[in-house]
Amino acid sequence: MLLISPVPPPAGGIANWTEILIRRGLPDGWQVRLVDTSVGTNRGVFETGPLIQELRRAARVLGRTLRELLLARPQVLHVNVDPFARGLYRDGLAIAMAAARGVPTVLHHRGGLSEGMVGAGRFHLKWFEKLATLATINLVLDGASHDFVDAMRGAVRLLPNYFDDDELPRVAPPVRAADERLRAVFVGAVAHAKGCDLILEAAASLPDVDIELVGRVYPEMQAQLDRAPGNVSALGERPHGEVLDCMRRAHVFVFPTLHPEGFPNVVCEAMAVGIPVVATARGAIPEMLAQGGGVLIEPTAAALVGELRTLGANERLRETMGREGQERAFSQYAFSAVAMELARLYEGLGEGRLPARSGTAPGERS
Which of 26, 80, 17 is nearest to 264 (CA)? Predict the structure, then answer.
């Protein structure tokens, strides 16, 4: 299988997904060859480089893809794409090259399409529709995205993201002592798009709650962080093992994102740790939490304050949510389970079996 995708740095949902796949490998003898689309260490996941830099990166990626198609002759091409970014045009050309050589193609959309495509230009939407119908199969992360691609008559299937169950084995969820302050943690880009300004606003009304922000601090947030109350700690970027340790020390995971999310890995990891998730209804998050594991809120500081106060005052509710989320994470979102689905998908494509044009939402999987 030829995979076109970024790896860290910088860390991010797509890059982390790819890193786990490369490290763990696929079952059933599938070998992965990578064409790296990383932007490098000097840019963040929400930053766009100069056009000339992007054109050079596109030429490098497409040149490597063509060499792999000609020399390695992969059975399947899998492209992880941010459907809202300029890279969609580059990745579309890679899909077209593979299709011209008769190689089955997987177009893996990394974002909530029905939300993220609002306001997209007409040409971008037309390009997206062309690729959705050209790809052998589209993989999406939430039910609304499934319906979006299905309406374009593209073959589509839902597949959740995963967490690394080797790195994050199942252990008992964190227990909060009777006299212990509630600890909440956020993991991700410390930016407006992730709702971090809402977290800081809420923190001022929650002096008895300690809040940790783990992730790269974007310049737009620095002034607010400088004025943040003493119960807020901005830890910056940390190695993934330390990030998981922060989650294990916490009692609640907060994720009031405003971004058109797909299937946030950090939410999945928080569920696997066994701490309840307080998040906005973006992308697949409502489906992830449909059977317990957390609560959805409106994107306001007042809503975040209310839920943290509720969980801080009701330890039984907090523990129940944590256990429900952990059970769901290990039964449906562990790498060992999702990788088997990927391998079966590749096997079908390699044998010329076109997947069905339907799928099951992440919140409804059996």
Answer: 17
